[in-house]
Amino acid sequence: MTRRSVLAAVAAGLSFAVLAVDGASAQTMKSVAGAYTIAKTEAYGEKPRGQLILTAEGRYALVLRRGDLKPIAAGARVKGTPEENKMVVDGSIAHYGTYTIDDGGKAITFNVEGSTFPNWDGKPQKRPLKVSGDTLTYAVAAPSAGNKPGEVSWRRIRK
Amino acid sequence: MNRRSTLAAAAVGLSFAVFAASSFAQPTMKTVAGTYSAVTVAAFGDKPRGMLILAPDGNYVALVGRAQLAPVASGVRTTATDAENKALVDGSIAHYGRWSIDDGGKVITFHVEMSSFPNWDMKPQKRPLKTYGDTLTYVVPTPSVGGTPPEITWRRVK
User: Fold this and answer.
1) Structure pTM?
2) pLDDT confidence of residue A29
């Protein structure tokens, strides 16, 4: 073995070790549990806002919203005009229930119990998952707004 | 001191100890943090549904609504009819942000960041708090439907 081939072998071994460590850190409920703020979504305008909490015990709740919704002029939720109600429904979604990390960390399943979009109630939604550092990203195959499948990214809130 | 009066004194002492323990065990963020299911929310009928997660790091998400909300017939959130939109807005509310326990455990403050009722955005809401076992109850001084301040009760999910 020449010196160069030894170095190449060592380099290859190191790369494999790095790859193995990365691949071995599969996501679990324990590793993803926490509070997140929205980082990227295409469905809620240029300034989306939102928060997701995943508890270590397997419960979750999330709210996603456009940042630019206007107050309801009457000051009471049940007195919105048709335009105001449409603004709220088009511009926000919230749901809660239990969640699991599946497929060896490659998917997150939201078992939706209740939602502001009732079509989702009682239905599990399995979403391909990627986690990189503080960023958690999943793909939504059937978005509630009927738009094409998209990715939603959340960033862990650090105190 | 005879035996009976000794027993009576012990009983009184015990009662006081129990009373002291319960009255001084004021709620803190540590004791209140957790996941709750909606029990009583007058605005959403007899069987409201909802979840409140009070994370120990001070973040929260809350969603409550009527037991039955009809699905949007078109299957698409943004093509709901006026009547469907009204049913959804009238029948649910969600908000999130940070929370704190204040006034020595007598108040929970929701520092609302954003809500499905945008009138609440970025405004702290201080709500008188009572806790009893697994039950958490607070009064909403300025309910989103207007009118009399209701009590909202949640039960801790095991």
Assistant:
1) 0.86
2) 95
